[in-house]
Amino acid sequence: MKPAAEFFLRTAAGRFSVVEYGGSGKDCLLIHGTGQNALAWKAAAKDLARKYHVVALDLRGHGQTPEDSSEAQQYWRDIGPIASALNLERPVLIGHSTGAYAATAYVASGGDASAIVCVDGFTLDEPNSSDTATEQKKWNDAEALFSMFRYGWIATATERDRYLDEVVAASPTDPLNAGVEPELLRAMLKRCFFERDGFFLRRPTLEEIDIVSQSSPDATVAPDRDVYDRVSIPLLLVWARHGLSSGRHRELRQIAEARAGRALISIDASHNVPMQHPTELAKLICSGLEALVGTDRAVFSERARQG
Q1: Is the whole model's pTM more than 0.90, yes or no?
Q2: CATH, residue 30
Q3: How far apart are CA 12 and CA 120, in angstroms?
């Protein structure tokens, strides 16, 4: 496998920071969750690249991508221009958390892909559900988000590095980071800080999160369980037993059983699966996709076209 290469990609939607993890085989695009970036996939990508050609991106408002959001649907609409600029051929989309919804929404809106893998990132409530509003309100509490993750914090290099030291030191007892390799955790978090005028902005900002969380009455796709009805390509759901949907296995099973070409698998993990259990996750994804669509590239593409 070639060593990872980082570069800026010019697309019809703007400039994006991308990490090319290498490998050969079917194209695979990795999409991180809120508050992380392309390096969150580094350990898992090493194993995925044994079977796939693997590329990861920093979503707008995250990592080193210079673009910010001006409306809620941009971040998942970016997937098409990014895949096109990278010359990815009907890629497998593997998303974690918010990235899982991004992949699903992109395909539900007509985007081209061969398969979707959702890692602990599901929309399980009915349209306009009060449960959805309550959950969204909890995660949009600005004070709590800043306290937990420092979103929007502007720091000096010294302050940033001290913060990185603190997070890494606390990681063994932090449910989100326990078990993550310390240097990987440090590198991923450091990439979250975007340099502006000699200071470092911890991304995403609270404004970014607020914009992305807004619901638009004319949105073509909404973050509720109806989105899965519009997905006909192979769909692999990876349920973290101690993650954000820990008590909702029944709803996930219903989605998986709603049509052929879907599967639900589980992993004994909390929410930060790609960083905490990268090798196990990669093996589950590879075996799960093989069971759904096979390893042959031509068969993969044909089955995806048939839905």
Answers
A1: yes
A2: 3.40.50.1820
A3: 30
